[in-house]
Write a structure and sequence with these properties.
Layout: E1 16-21, E2 24-29, H1 34-40, E3 47-48, E4 55-56, E5 69-72, E6 75-78, E7 89-92
Parallel strand pairs: 1-7
Antiparallel strand pairs: 1-2, 3-4, 5-6, 5-7
């Protein structure tokens, strides 16, 4: 857990698995909500908007706003609707001036 994060983990003693986010490995609680776990680990920007390039991070945490979009195995998904599993490779979703894939 990142002590500088304003987000707390509900189960700090939960078993950890390795998740790679944008080239950095994180030890996240297995089975946790991916968006919540990344926020608690100190990740602040999940994607950039396609129009302006403005940074975005989770907002609603229930799958309605799409601000937490990430790419997992080349597929764009909502981090707030994804569970942490060992070996996930997550990238920021492409934003302005970036190409998919």
């Amino acid at each position: 857990m990142n002590d500088a994060s304003p987000f707390l983990e509900l189960e700090p003693d939960a078993p950890r698995v390795t998740v790679r986010f944008d080239g950095t490995d994180y030890a996240l609680p297995e089975g946790a909500n991916l968006a919540a776990a990344l926020l608690a680990a100190g990740v602040r920007i999940f994607r950039a908007t396609p129009v302006s390039g403005a940074p975005r991070a989770p907002f609603c945490m229930m799958g309605a706003c799409y601000d937490c979009l990430v790419q997992i195995d080349g597929v764009t998904r909502q981090a707030c609707m994804t569970r942490v599993t060992d070996g996930l490779v997550v990238e920021r979703a492409p934003g302005k001036d970036q190409k998919d894939g």
